[in-house]
Amino acid sequence: MRRILHIDMDAFFAAVEQKRHPELIGKPVVIGGDGDPTKRGVVSTASYEARKVGIHSAMPLRTAYKLCPDAVFLPVDYKEYSRVSKIVKNILKEISPTMEDVGIDEAFLDISQIEKSSEDIANEIKKRIKDETGLTCSIGIAPNKLLAKIASDMQKPDGLTILTEKDIASLIWPMPVRKLQGVGPKTEAHLKGMGIETIGELASMPVDKLIEHFGKSFGHYLYEASRGIDESPLITHWEPKSTSREVTFQKDTDNWQFMAKTLAGLSKEIVDDMRQTGFIGKTVTVKVKFHDFKVVTRAKTLDNYTVSLEEIRRAAFECFGRIELKKKVRLIGIRIGKLEKMV
Q1: CB proximity list for 258: less than 8 A, separation 6 or greater
Q2: Would you list the domain boundaries of the chain?
Q3: Nearest in space to 6 (alpha carbons), one of 108, 113, 155, 131
Q4: I want to staple 328 with a disulfide (CB 3.0 to 4.6 A). Which of 32, 145, 252, 284 is the partner?
Q5: Is the whole model's pTM more than 0.90, yes or no?
């Protein structure tokens, strides 16, 4: 019997900050940008106290401030969060070597071959993480990744939910369709237009009808996912197809020199990262977002794979030069695609 465990650290960034600054415990804490809510930036994580007033990740910091002026706003400290994340991931690898790392604060484990009960395994993980980091996590265990991820979100924070196939009708089908991975606002609205609001209502639809509305691939996915079917394996090793860097300016700008300096800096950052991780790339893409949120990209494919700063920066400026700058710019970014490992 396949047993997949999904672990999600509770309000991870905010929890790390509350742990190292105990005076923040019980207060609404918002992590994002450089911690200044008067500047541009988005919420990375909010403590549960801040979530109660409607603050959530990806929300503009300025909006979060309007919702809760008394919240404590802090800058993102990736170095510290990565350090704590490494402790958590090392604990998980000791429990099961078959781990899919899906982010700084979550992962999947295949615990099918472990003789202990699912509950004992989850409690051991929770205790070790609490003892070594002082943090809590929520865990879901189910026959597949799809259900395990749904389960880990059912009793937050510090929750444990174990699902079997027998629970699909009683626990999964009453949930809104948005709870299914891959169902975003547009798909949700489309389904609502079809009279479908719950996962159970989606499960009652014939596959041909779903294919008619969503195409063969996504239609099949919705048909199977709504029934709790997911055969996808854990991906224990993967290599990126691209790497990118971008900057949102605090004020929209039409200063070419300022933008060029920023692009040069981003080019160096991305090349340094590629060298550190051992990749070379071939396609350079520059992205510009204007003040009206219109996005324009230009790309250049190089003759050979490279990690040369000079070649990548030259290609980036060639792409940048092909973008008409008739409006003020809000954001500029660079992406290197077609990555390959250095030999």
Answers
A1: none
A2: 4-8+82-167, 13-78, 173-225, 242-341
A3: 108
A4: 252
A5: no
How far apart are the C-alpha atoms of 75 and 80, rounded to whole Å?
12
The CATH architecture to which 4-8+82-167 belongs is 2-Layer Sandwich (3.30)
- The helix, strand and coil proportions of the chain, stated in percent and rounded to the nearest 5, come to 40, 25, 35
Output DSSP code: residue 234. P
The reply to whether 106 belongs to the active site is yes
CA atoms of 342 and 290, how far apart (whole Å): 36
Task: Specify the pLDDT at position 238.
Answer: 82
Report the percent of the chain where pLDDT is more than 70: 100
Domain 13-78 has CATH 3.40.50.2000: no
Residue-wise DSSP of 312-324: HHHHHHHHHHTS-
CB 244 within 8 A of CB 336: yes
User: Which residues, other chains included, contact 50 with Cβ-Cβ below 8 Å and sequence gap of 6+?
Assistant: 14, 28, 29, 30, 64, 68, 71
> φ and ψ at 22, to 5 degrees?
-55, -25
Omega cis (within 30) before 157? yes
In degrees to the nearest 10, what's the CA dihedral of 268, 272, 274, 277? Answer: -160
